[in-house]
């Protein structure tokens, strides 16, 4: 058995997985022949320290990249499966602060809540765009929390989209843990402090990009992200990932500058995408540039 097969054999499917798969199947059926589909993964996975989880190792990712990119894929006429960490940043809602919404409401005639005219101009465009996408059924939201939830969803989504290849792409922006505690080593109940300081040994997660590219979705256009904090390592690591897994594009980004620039690395070349001062002043997001570029490359991929 391959390492990744062992992982799935040892970590049971999360609750609701069959329903999630049914939703993905129905979504793909609805859009096949009408819209290309993008699977966007977003936010960070958790690694539980206990099976009845009280404590877990988390990841910094807020999900901003995935949520913003989803809106731009929708703008490019894609249907989007948005697989995101529960309670992370989401498309459309990210423009509306919950406190702002509470401030924006007032009680109208008959005690019915209304949006005050002064606030309406900010909410209306977001609401209109969301309603349009909703009426077209072009956005499917699915959530994960733990690493295992994420990997089960990723595998099923990829297998589902493979049937639509080449008109489907994977855009893997989630920050996925490289380390975990295997099922046979994890504590069943809350770890007690009476036993003294805690030493935990995390094992390496099998590299799932390998079966993703070679087994689950061999004809899909696959874009992965690579995050580093050391500038000197970024291109080297992105290129190594591409050579190892043989997918289509790696988007390298540095923690410190990820909102302003990314490097697109393919087998043949690497190119920098950076917001200009003018674009920053206009509040243009780097995700707009990334998604335009990815869609253009995906269109070429579909042609050949
Ligand atoms: O979610 P966010 O907007 O805060 O950050 C996005 C990101 C840095 C997690 C993403 O661009 C990324 O690089 N994801 C892959 C991380 C990795 O190397 O596993």
Q: Helicity level, as a percent range? A: 40-55%
Whole-number average pLDDT? 96
Share of residues in strands: 15-25%
Structural class, judged by helices and strands?
Answer: alpha/beta
- Please identify, by name, the CATH architecture: 3-Layer(aba) Sandwich
Bound molecules: ligand PAZ
Number of separate domains: 1
Count of alpha and pi helical runs: 10
Oligomer: single chain
Largest β sheet strand count, sense and barrel closure: 8 strands, mixed
CATH top level class name: Alpha Beta
Shape: globular
CATH homologous superfamily grouping: CoaB-like
Instruction: Report strand order across the widest sheet.
Output: 7-4-1-8-11-12-13-14
Radius of gyration: 21 Å
Number of strands: 14
The CATH topology is given as Rossmann fold
Element pattern in H and E: HHEEEHEHEEHEHEEEHEHEEEHH
List the helices and strands and how they pair.
Elements: H1 3-10, H2 17-31, E1 37-42, E2 47-48, E3 56-57, H3 64-75, E4 79-85, H4 98-104, E5 105-107, E6 113-115, H5 117-136, E7 139-144, H6 147-162, E8 168-172, E9 179-180, E10 203-204, H7 209-216, E11 221-228, H8 231-245, E12 249-254, E13 261-265, E14 270-274, H9 277-281, H10 286-303
Helix pairs in contact: 2-6, 3-10
Bound molecules: ligand PAZ.
Pfam family, one: DFP
Domain DNA/pantothenate metabolism flavoprotein C-terminal: 159-274
Family: Belongs to the PPC synthetase family.
